[in-house]
């Protein structure tokens, strides 16, 4: 069994053009209208994925 991430940073949803649907490991401070600082912060999932890569196993 494997794991494939959708994107490393939050990105605009291709189907709905929404930024509020967040898929990445890195949070981007921007809303659906382009307002925000565009500052990037690591999410909890970033640390989880980092451990997956380091250990070569999925930790649930």
Structure description:
- The chain has 60 residues and is α+β, with helices and mostly antiparallel strands.
- The chain has one domain (1-60).
- Helices cover 20% and strands 10% of the residues.
- The protein has one helix at 44-55, and strands at residues 26-28, 40-42.
- Strands 1-2 form a two-stranded antiparallel sheet.
- The longest helix has 12 residues, at 44-55.
- The chain is elongated.
- The model has no long low-confidence stretch (mean pLDDT 86).
**What is the ordering of alpha helices and beta strands?**
EEH
Oligomeric composition of the shown chains: single chain
The portion of residues forming beta strands comes to 5-15%
What separation lies between the terminal Cα atoms?
A: 13 Å
Mean pLDDT, to the nearest integer, reads: 86
How much helical structure, as a percent, in the residues? 10-25%
Give the class from helix and strand content and strand pairing.
alpha+beta
Q: Major sheet: order of its strands?
A: 1-2
Number of helices: 1
The description of the largest β-sheet is: 2 strands, antiparallel
Key words describing this protein structure:
60 residues, Glycosyl hydrolase family 1, elongated, Glyco_hydro_1, hydrolase activity, hydrolyzing O-glycosyl compounds, GGDEF_dom, 1 helix, alpha+beta
Write the layout of secondary structure elements.
Elements: E1 26-28, E2 40-42, H1 44-55
Antiparallel strand pairs: 1-2
What is the structure about, briefly put?
The protein has 60 residues and is an alpha+beta fold. It is 20% helix and 10% strand.
């Amino acid at each position: 069994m494997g794991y494939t991430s959708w994107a490393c940073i939050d990105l605009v949803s291709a189907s709905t053009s929404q930024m509020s649907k967040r898929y990445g490991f890195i949070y981007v401070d921007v809303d659906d209208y382009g307002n925000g600082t565009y500052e990037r912060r690591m999410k909890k999932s970033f640390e989880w994925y980092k451990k997956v890569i380091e250990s070569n196993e999925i930790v649930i």
